[in-house]
Amino acid sequence: MKKITLLLLAALAAMPVLAQDIDEEARRSARQAETEKRSEKAAAEASDRKPLEGAGSVTYEDVLAQPDNVELNYRWAKKQVEAGDIKGASATLERILMVKPGLTRIRLTYAVILYRLDNMAEARRELELVKAQSSGAVRAEAEEYLARVEKRTRLTHFHGTLGVGYQYDDNRNAGPASHQRLFRGTALNLATGRATDDTSVLMLAGFGVRRDLRGPLAKALFADLNYYRAEQTNLDTLDLQAYSFAAGAEFKLGRLTVTPTALADHIRLSEETYLRTRGGRLRFDRRLNKRMAVHAIAQVLVNDHIRTTDIPTATERTGTESTLRGGASLVVAPTQRVAAEYGYQQKDARKMYIAYDRHSLALTHTWLIGGGRFLLSGLGIDRDRYAAPDLVIASAERADDRARVHLTIGQPLGFLGKLFEPMLLTAGYEYLHVNSNILNYAYTNNKVNTMLIYRWDH
Known about the structure:
Elements: H1 2-13, H2 22-49, H3 60-65, H4 70-82, H5 86-99, H6 104-116, H7 120-133, H8 136-153, E1 156-169, E2 180-183, E3 186-189, E4 198-212, E5 218-232, E6 240-253, E7 256-269, E8 272-287, E9 292-305, E10 319-333, E11 336-347, E12 356-370, E13 373-386, E14 399-412, E15 423-436, E16 443-457
Antiparallel strand pairs: 1-4, 1-16, 2-3, 4-5, 5-6, 6-7, 7-8, 8-9, 9-10, 10-11, 11-12, 12-13, 13-14, 14-15, 15-16
Helix pairs in contact: 4-5, 5-6, 6-7, 6-8, 7-8
């Protein structure tokens, strides 16, 4: 009889591993979307820098020694851009063009700098001159930037993303590092449910619209719809689909930008609806100077969990999730930016052993390597403390500490030809380590993935 009881306990302890860290599953799509958003922003910044790279070694003393050397002055202007002195570079190029107005390559660089300074009227005028006076690659680049100027000056903007990728996790099912699981305080060796690796095909799609406004306070209206899917090779119970919708407005109050946003998510696991979320977010942004900006975010979500075949107790997780975050970003070099953010989250649930308080810290670094390439890196730390013990597992209240390290490198594919210009190839690595006082939830996972993304905007 005792043997049968132990076997029954082992079977109960080996119930779907999906439920052991299900909150982590629900966040996967949001993290992927945030990574792709950072990647697209970095790719755009890297693309803007490409025409201004290649200054080489030059100092202001070199320029003073040879003030009439056009090539030296041109390289010095690029060096000024590298140092973040955009206005100084503009003045340097303007002086060159006053003496030799027929230098179309230099005029093109001057137009690009005006574009970066958001002087669209002057940038358009200079680009039209370059287009009329040049041919070949210089003319093509001028036409490309003229198209960018037209896009920038439109009131209504549409953008979209399509992506496909491949991912490998060495512990996709969050199998406990101890190869054991607690049941009523007893540690049972796992016959099933141990760490299992798996691969998956990733798909993402997004569409958004933004309408710029000319009012004294209202800056823009926007709406975005995104879809994410991860189709597992073997662990079909972990197939994930996520639909996300956001719509809001931007208001300018002096130097402060205020962005209220309505949010809605629909998450499916193993082809069944698992979670519907609705709520709102209020974000405040302020640029302190040309190098530093700060932000604060308040967000409230109502999480409505739906029972599924694999997670019959899902409704126990239904509740409100409230989050406060604040942080700052700093441009430490013309090609490098760091950011730090602290957050506090309170998650309620119908069962108190699922409710928790979370303190989090996130550090990120963006590096524009050159040639359109970029490297994103980050460290995230979460400290979760649960409100009550799950007596089916153990008498102690659960306490988790989570550390996540991630790297993403990106390469735009424009160098392959005109057809590939909207395409971006990324490769990423993530290490996740979860330490918990309940051995069921302590695990590590290594993840590598690659994505091919097609971007368009109009």
